[in-house]
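Below is how a single chain appears once it has passed through the pipeline. First comes the sequence as given, then the structure the pipeline wrote out for it. We keep one example in the README because the format questions we get most often are answered faster by looking than by reading.
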Amino acid sequence: MYTNPAPLAATVDALRNGQHSLSLYLEQMNKRITQVNPQVEALLVEPERITRLRNDAAALRERYPDPTTRPPLYGALVGVKDIFHVDGFTTRAGSQIPPAFFAGAEAICVQQLRAAGAVILGKTVTTEFAYFEPGPTHNPHNWEHTPGGSSSGSAAAVAAGLCPLALGTQTIGSVIRPAAFCGIVGFKPSFDRIATQGILYFSRTVDHVGLFTQDVAGMRLAASVLCRDWHDDLARSPELSKATLSPVLGVPEGPYLEQTEPDALVEFKRQTYQLAEAGYQIKRVPTFAGIAQLNQLHRRLCFAEFAQEHTTLYAQFAPLYRPRTREAIEIGKTVSEAELADYRANPLKLRNELHAKMDEAGIDLWVCPAATGPAPVGIQATGDPNMNLPWTHAGLPAVTVPAGRATNGLPLGLQLIGRFGTDEVLLSQAEAIETVLRQA
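Resulting structure:
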């Protein structure tokens, strides 16, 4: 096991107030990376990493000598999935295509992190173009298992304690699933709440920027920096106080939930029982009766937009694309413009339907497994994203918190989904639920 504590909020607090030396912190983290990354392979290799980090830290100290003026993420090391453009780094996207074809301006969210005092640790491994063809990354909890994908390196880096914060993306389940597999917190905000400009897009209709931390307190800090118009006091407003402190939880019963493996479903039932014992009201609501059709629709939408993104490159470099990536593009090319227009209208339709169902059932929060089961054996595949797909399609905010273990000892996650635009409330609710689950 290669896991190690790296709590974002506590680390940043110690660095900001001078309790912990930034220089010493970087040397300690570099030692950890030198020892662990060759085994986990979460970070892309950078020969002069420590020299660059020392220079970045020196510039940060010079800019903020007074602890009282230091920004909220002062000194925090951030791993960045290798589909984000970052100044000074090459974007390769896990692909064999010449990287010069991917050059672009630095991602807006990376600029926001730098402005908040974060230090870019480096690029993290991604599956090819954030789809299913995996990189070399291993799960820090068990070397023989996948960390999930497509944000493989970002999830593994945070779980392994190589950095307290990492950026990922989710088009189907690429934040929530790997976070669950790696036993950490993953957050996919409401659609477009974090700017996507500066990434290599897979599907512009449903691509989300997401985050990885080791606990919800750290996630709330990171989200407050990156989410548009963040209002931390929203979660404490009188109108939302009851829903925030004691939300009614809805379990989406039916074919969707039946996608879960028996082992994980038993553990999920235990988790809901634990929450009920803690005072949460649980309502079982039949939902997603047509999940098989939605699963297909979402993928055809994504594949069609992916094919459009790669029209020029694929025509020139098709042999360099790996098999599952080529398959996605070829399927995407079969989607007509009329069909695609219908698909693009469906996320808002589903969002409205889910909001109406929440109103009708009187629930504040959906709760369900974060993945169909624990991380599968091997790193040749990244696991099944179907437990995340409908929430991503609807653009609703979702977070997974660590929630017990499967019978094979690997982590499981509990996925929480809120109403569109209520990300602040969702994370406040998640922090309370995280506390309950940790008492197990």
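The first strand starts at residue 77 and ends at 81.

See the next section for the split statistics.
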